[in-house]
Amino acid sequence: MPLIFYYDLMSQPCRALYIFLKMTGIPFESKEIALRKLENTTDEFSRINPFKKVPVIGDSGFLLTESVAIFMYLCDKYEKFDWYPKEVKARARVNEYANWQHLNLRSNGAMYFRTKIITPRLTNKPINERELEKWQGRLEDSLGDLENVWLARSSYLGGDHLTFADLLGICELMQPIAAGYNFDREKFSRVQDWMQRVKNETQPYFDETHAVPMRMRTAILKDQKSKL
């Protein structure tokens, strides 16, 4: 019985897991849950995940939520130790980033996206520029940590080669980018170089997975330009 993957590609961790599954060749059955249609709030899906969030996997009746836990489970089950090293110290580096990101890059990037895109659409009100400036500042604090801590220590977020930490990181960063954010490429040169490496190593799945977010970015930038 194939793995069942419940996801929406507008979700950052769903995109990370989708790229991973495609690159590793782990067979899975797609179950798309459209967050924009509130399909995650139905009684049927609530029985799959009481927290009403994606991603979720089902493995022969075993249901597992939370993206980091799913990555760990799949890497151990399918022995994908290039993505999640077996050696204890190398694994600890991946765990270190996966734990750090929740209240840093993930939280700040998501709130930038919510403030600029989701809240105005839900409330039919203009963007709260003061709130957006606050979250942009916090996002750039996280980018500074990527630049000056994580990527100063090693060329990837979890060590010297691609791991699932990098998939989590780049998919989180693509969320504010989809909302039209442009980071300072001179200030964050290591981040730029790392992003390009990860994109190159995960093609064609990176572009496939980010097709909708990048169409959103194109539309937002076009609208911004028209208002100048």
From TrEMBL:
Assigned keywords, A-Z: Cytoplasm, Transferase
GO molecular function, one term: glutathione transferase activity
CDD domains (UniProt xref): GST_C_Theta (cd03183), GST_N_Theta (cd03050)
An annotated GO cellular component: cytoplasm
Subcellular location: Cytoplasm
Reactions the enzyme catalyzes: RX + glutathione = an S-substituted glutathione + a halide anion + H(+)
Pfam family, one: GST_N
Signal peptide boundaries: none
Residues covered by the GST N-terminal domain: 1-82
SUPFAM superfamilies: GST C-terminal domain-like, Thioredoxin-like
Designated name of the protein: Uncharacterized protein
